[in-house]
């Protein structure tokens, strides 16, 4: 029979692994979004105070919503952006807040399952 101390150690290790894995996904998603923004923000636009919400998943984004977001784009971003193919099933999303000329703005980015490409944003 295992001692209570052994159970505590096993539970602590499992929680640590889960925390590390989730932090890794968050970091990867943030880096992908930062790279996307750096490539696709209009020239001369200066932002500051970038802050990210927690990474989430959704299955409520349809092909028509992806097409609409791609068509509409967002203020401050270039037109004609090249996107990754929209995956089937769940997508990750990440909200980014930032300051632009004293105003707080927010965009939501939808990423593929590998967290390496932006599929659409609004």
Task: Itemize the secondary structure elements and their pairings.
Blueprint: H1 4-40, E1 48-52, E2 56-58, H2 63-72, E3 91-100, E4 103-111, E5 118-121
Number of strands: 5
Which percent range fits the helix content? 25-40%
Query: How large is the share of residues in beta strands?
Result: 25-35%
Question: Whole-number average pLDDT?
Answer: 84
Q: Helices and strands: which structural class?
A: alpha+beta
Shape: globular
- Runs in which pLDDT lies below 50 for 5 or more consecutive residues are 14-21
**Number of helical regions:** 2
- Termini separation comes to 55 Å
- Calculate Rg over CA atoms: 18 Å
Along the chain, the helix and strand elements come as HEEHEEE
Taking the sheet with the most strands, its summary is: 5 strands, antiparallel
Quick structural summary:
This protein has 122 residues and is α+β, with helices and mostly antiparallel strands. The protein contains two helices and five strands; from the N terminus they run H-E-E-H-E-E-E.
Report on this model:
This protein is α+β, with helices and mostly antiparallel strands. The chain contains 2 helices and 5 strands, in the order H-E-E-H-E-E-E. Strand 3 and strand 4 form a beta hairpin. It is globular.
């Amino acid at each position: 029979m295992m001692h209570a101390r052994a159970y505590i150690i096993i539970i602590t290790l499992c929680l640590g692994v889960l925390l590390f894995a989730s932090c890794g996904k968050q970091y990867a998603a943030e880096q992908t979004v930062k790279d996307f923004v750096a490539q696709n923000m209009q020239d001369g636009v200066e932002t500051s105070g970038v802050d990210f919400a927690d990474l989430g998943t959704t299955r409520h984004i349809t092909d028509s919503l992806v097409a609409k977001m791609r068509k509409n784009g967002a203020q401050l971003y270039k037109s004609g952006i090249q996107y990754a193919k929209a995956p089937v099933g769940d997508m990750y999303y990440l909200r980014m807040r930032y300051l632009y000329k004293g105003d707080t703005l927010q965009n939501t980015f939808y990423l593929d399952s590998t967290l390496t490409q932006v599929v659409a944003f609004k």
